[in-house]
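Protocol step 4 of 6: record predicted structures for both targets in the notebook before any analysis. Target 1:
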Amino acid sequence: MRLILLGTAGYHPNDRRHTACVLLPECGLMFDAGTAVFRAAEYLALPELDIFLTHAHLDHVVGLTFMHDVARAHPLRRVAVHARPDNLRAIEEHLFAAGLFPTPPPFECRPLEAEYALSDGGRLTHFPLEHRGGSIGYRIDWAERSMAYVTDTTADPAAAYVEKLKGVDLLLHECYFSDDHADWARKVGHSHTSKVAEVARRAGAGVLVLVHINPLATADDPIGLDAAKAIFPNTILGEDRMELEF
């Protein structure tokens, strides 16, 4: 299974990273639609695309306005955006308000269902996360592999969502701050390095990939990777356009 990190920043893009967007091209499935969406046409493999949103903060949805160009470069006969009903209303009423973006791309808005049976045999489920305004985490289980995507929450190995991650082969988890800024994590509803690693260890994950990185942290190691590896050795710092096989 191939997974592509199209965007790995939170809040806003910088010269190295665009905001949240993850693509499984052979499944026709995308998680979040941040500023990296414009890259999707290079990788799409199917004529249909299902976009699953974690929430409706701008850094996760603004790329929906880019879908005209994506669909022109890679023709799509169907695009569906799946999210909580309140998130869909916010997108329709505000992001695509006449004064902001009067010509919305041709996609369907679909309220989240309890679970989804994917065409390749996978089973997609979701679970709530603690964040201002709420957020959703996702997990996909296939017969021989599994993955989960968790962003915009404060990592805590005692949090309820950790049970939903048990035994997952590949865990993408936000890591906005290094441990030097742990005090800010709780204040703004995000995560810092060592707590994310503790979540992966508690869940018994196979590989941890850190995403949703603070765009102001522009060093090659913006989150203190050694601190994560000391707790959970199989940790990778996500980078834009990184391709993962799992």
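Target 2:
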Amino acid sequence: MNRKGAISILCLAGFAVMFAACGGGTGGNTAGSVDPNEAAAKVNGKVITMQDVDREVKQQAGGQEGKLSPLELASARLQVLDSLIQKEVMFQKAEKESSVPSDEDVTAEINKRKSQSGQTADQIEKAMKEQGVTEASLRDSVKKELAINKLVEKVTSKVEPPKDSEVEAFYNGNKEAFVKKKGVKLAAIIIDPTNAGEGDQTTDEVSSVAKANEIVGKIKAGQDFASLAREYSEDQTKFQGGDLGYVAQEDLNTFGEQAAGALMNPQLQPGGIITARSQGKLFILKMQERSDKDEPMTLESPGVRQQVIESLGNSRKQLLAASYQAVAMNEAKIENLLARKVVDNPNELSGARPAGSSTAPASNSNSSNSATNSIANATPAANANANAAKPTNTNAAASPKPAATTLAKPAATPAKPAATPANK
């Protein structure tokens, strides 16, 4: 069970707030055509161009940018520009604090993300080309992200651990949340018969079944499950050795009723293996631990005290980070030229979409774009989701993916823990 609960300083697939309904983009929408070198905004004299804005918008459109009306396009641009302004303000602060990474660090981070994307080099190159991302713009984006991350870590390092009295008060006020639910702790090796772009080694039913049987044989022969997961699993969980965390009994049906029953059957001992088919995928499941009833937990239960300490500390760090960014934004000289243009020309934005586009495009609908989105996109550090401070909910869904963190201001008070605290 994952107890990390650490503050999510940066989001790798951000800007989800605006684009859930209409995507965003440029492309074939001639009504939105602009000079790419035109200044969209200035931050302390540093120009953010329309090319910078439209590149970010295009990454979120998933190739559907031509379906937006001028009104939707303008709204998307303004949303992205606001984030770019915040990012530039924080990067300039990072430069003043000598928190900018070296070229070697940037290269290493890009290579790591490309590897973890599960995409081939050709797929990544194609996605970058489709989104107008160059190696130079990718390096610039990652450089700024790492710099902001380093700056926020430096700023929030001033936060001291909470006192024992604070920890006890937090626990006593939230006892109902500290319950270990009836369920199991699982790890999985996931085989996908389709080519889903997760580093798949199998792309059809026959090869998938054969590969799953081969892996089960290796497990029975005594090979390490986590190592096999890292080598064979066709899912992002392979990077955690297949760890799915703790899954409550009521959530086990995601693997099918038969598998759920087998996992809760006392005859299946910790370390036992079962197979299941769910969501069109083959699951090789390892039951690592089982709780046969809901169990109240105390501060002395494994992991609980540390979980409370992290929750309180992370809430304070988020508040400090948000306050630091607010001060930085207040001190910066910001000229939002794009917003000014909208104010000066309020009647030039049509709400009609281009011909043949009856509905707005979905965000990131093209799966080939996902690799570059996860590699290149970053939000300002102080806008990390406030919920990251909560203790991790261990009722994990099957085949979890790294979540995109939406932009939200952190809460002024510590967040209450999730219904089931983590417990390793």
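Step 5 preliminary note on target 2. Residues 304-331 form the longest helix (28 residues). Residues 16-159+304-389 form a domain with the Triger factor/SurA peptide-binding fold fold (CATH 1.10.4030.10).
Proceed to step 6 after PI sign-off.
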